[in-house]
Amino acid sequence: MTQAFSASLAIAAPEVILGIGAMVLLMIGVFTGERSARFMTTLSVVLLFVTALWLIFATPDGRAFDGSFELDAFARFMKILVLIGSAATMILTVGYAESDHFNRFEFPVIICLSTVGMMVMVSAGDLIALYMGLELQSLAAYVIAAFHRDSVKSTEAGLKYFVLGALSSGILLYGASMVYGFTGQIEFEAIARALSGETRSVGLLVGLVFVIAGLSFKLSLVPFHMWTPDVYEGSPTPVTAFFASAPKVAAMGLLTRFTMEGFGPFVADWRQVLVFVSILSMAFGAFAAIGQTNIKRLMAYSSIGHMGYALVGLSAGDAAGVRGVAVYMAIYMTMTLGVFAVVMAMRRREGQTQDVYELKGLSQTNPSMALALTVLMLSLAGLPPLGGFIAKYYVFMAAVGAGLWPLAIIGVVTSVVSLFYYLRIVKVMWFDEPAAGFVPASLELRGVLAVSTLFIFPVYIFFAGPILAAAQTAASSFF
């Protein structure tokens, strides 16, 4: 028994390290006070880096805690993305905090705790671990959404997110209870074995749909997207950057594991649900963003559309589809963090601005930022040869390979529609008369923007092989 527990701890060591480290950081912050915010952020980034190194080099694959927790190539790939996203968010915060009264040591600690939840989500092997990881991530998210206690918009964002998040948790729990009731199992592999010898029962399919609905809320998928624009706009910008990156990766990883590992025998049934949700999300994200002038709300609708594109790959239900999802989430997270670095840099002496038309003539006042944002916008639109095009290529080709060519065609059409609002930002930056320039961005913001832009083009173009190989290895975990 002791040996089995120690083996389980070895497999879950990154989560243990990060969780204990977060508690230690909290105590350090309590005793050093508010002035330690920058130092605490630095320590938190170091902690995430150490966790990533331990995950890569010192953590064995395997199943822990009687199957509740599993670490395989897919979990490892998605966890690394989560850790990178969380670390990048905290680096962005360093350059933003002092200028917007965001200088509190609690923020990096909460991000670390949320990251623990996301890592558990990706490795969840049963319905209990699924819910525990999801709620640990969500509870931290509710707090940081309302982190600006003196801001009405931030408080409203936190309240909306909490109320709708509680509703989605109830839906997910109801679905999980139905799955357990009809199979007698909570472990994903045991559920799959039970399903392989059963006919489709209506109650079990209802449970499956309810669980997918609960997870769709976290991914901002239509029709569970209603919280996204308001929460993105009202939350502090570093929080919005966080919501748009690492939690999306974790939720997509959890949905992939739940469908592929737990409901593999029912692929024809959950594929119908995912195709329906994917089409709604791609179409709504493309058309609803056209009239937006607030760049944070625009990115909210953009994220809805992009999660729909990722579902195109998952709907294929095969190794090519999972590989496409893994590649897509890596590129999407990188693009999003780069865009939010620019959003945080949109600051004049009188304060922060979020209006798209405040970017007028940026090519003349700040050519390097305008060039970087142009690359990111064109990549989000999916234009070749940028990283966003390659990401969409893999998910669309996976759908075509699975016979879902109408879904791929809809994806291409909605990508063309979305090109309108991405190109509008490019047009404003390069062809409009210049507005007043922004104050110089911090080194941290410029660094994240540079890394994101260089990854999208040209780094990914010339070094795509290792990333694709890692994604292929991740996908093989289920097949």
Automatic annotation (TrEMBL):
It comes from the Bacteria. Residues 124-417 form the NADH:quinone oxidoreductase/Mrp antiporter transmembrane domain. It is a multi-pass membrane protein. GO terms for molecular function: NADH dehydrogenase (quinone) (non-electrogenic) activity; NADH dehydrogenase (ubiquinone) activity; quinone binding. GO terms for cellular component: endomembrane system; plasma membrane. Belongs to the complex I subunit 2 family. NDH-1 is composed of 14 different subunits. Subunits NuoA, H, J, K, L, M, N constitute the membrane sector of the complex. NDH-1 shuttles electrons from NADH, via FMN and iron-sulfur (Fe-S) centers, to quinones in the respiratory chain. The immediate electron acceptor for the enzyme in this species is believed to be ubiquinone. Couples the redox reaction to proton translocation (for every two electrons transferred, four hydrogen ions are translocated across the cytoplasmic membrane), and thus conserves the redox energy in a proton gradient. This is NADH-quinone oxidoreductase subunit N.
